[in-house]
Write a structure and sequence with these properties.
The chain has about 270 residues and is α/β, with parallel strands linked by helices. The protein has one domain: NAD(P)-binding Rossmann-like Domain (Rossmann fold). The protein is about 45% helix and about 15% strand.
């Protein structure tokens, strides 16, 4: 966890400069993280705790949540977890409200839950798979934001929300058409929420990661060998992101250091969209 420092520096003409006290990006904030059992969400939970937040992890898989929570606690952070199904409205509301029960309020939320689809043209995707992709990647963030805004409004009064989108939402996505479409629609929800709740002091943004070394990417590469290599060739930085690199962007958007940023979809894509 980031500490605080304060010391004297010497500036021009040997005049003393007293440095400002600094602390973690999220010191004293209560953070709720959906999809926190693995990948970007787990990296975000670890990072947010190091940056001073008290975190509540949510996902469907209890074993994964428990492991990440215990890791954070062993490192000196404050963490707990709750099992949550993004397709179940009651489950989402209960998970968000748990943060208030545990910590007394909610300041920030990172909606990172997602599901992929079988890669391929849209005419080869079943209707059931299309519905599931939309239920998790579009309706899920809507359910989460609705509950989070109520919790922030009722406790901390102001705060910030970040939704996890995808660089695939910002361009044609022939291999993941339903996934890209659902994420693009979530971008619109993000902008609408930012415009609606900004006057109350609630900021809402999204991040659009490029290829990131998560289980989803590895599964895609297994089903379509060479995918990671092809994506690297399309990325100016020439590599996929580590999950913590994406989490760093979310942490900044949730922090007070981005206090004038709302309604944006921030590319974190290694230059893929350049």
């Amino acid at each position: 966890m980031s500490g605080t420092t304060g010391h004297r520096l010497v500036g021009m003409n040997n005049s003393p400069i007293t440095s400002l006290t600094t602390s973690g990006l999220l010191t004293d904030k209560v953070a709720f993280i959906i999809g926190a059992g693995r990948g970007i969400g787990a990296a975000a939970a670890r990072l947010f705790a190091r940056e001073g937040a008290r975190v509540l992890l949510a996902a469907r898989t209890q074993d994964q949540l428990k492991a990440v929570t215990e890791e954070i606690r062993e490192a000196g952070g404050t963490a707990d977890y709750v099992v949550c199904d993004l397709t179940d409205p009651a489950s989402v509301r209960a998970a968000v409200n748990r943060s208030v029960e545990l910590y007394g309020r909610l300041d920030v939320a990172f909606n990172n839950g997602a599901t992929g689809q079988l890669p391929g043209p849209m005419d080869q995707l079943s209707e059931a798979d299309f519905d599931h992709v939309c239920a998790v990647n579009l309706k899920g963030p809507w359910l989460a934001m609705t509950a989070e805004i109520a919790a922030i409004r009722g406790t901390a009064k102001h705060g910030a929300i970040v939704n996890s989108s995808s660089v695939g939402s910002l361009m044609g996505n022939p291999q993941l058409p339903a996934y890209g479409a659902a994420k693009r629609a979530a971008n619109s929800l993000t902008a609408s929420a930012a415009a609606t709740y900004g006057p109350e002091g609630i900021r809402v943004n999204a991040i659009a990661p490029g290829p990131t070394l998560t289980e989803m990417l590895h599964e895609w590469d297994e089903k379509s060998p060479g995918t990671i290599e092809q994506l690297n060739a399309q990325t100016p930085l020439g590599r996929p992101a580590d999950p913590e690199e994406i989490a760093q962007a979310a942490a900044w958007l949730l922090s007070d250091r981005s206090s004038y940023v709302t309604g944006t979809v921030l590319r974190v894509d290694g230059g893929m969209g350049a």
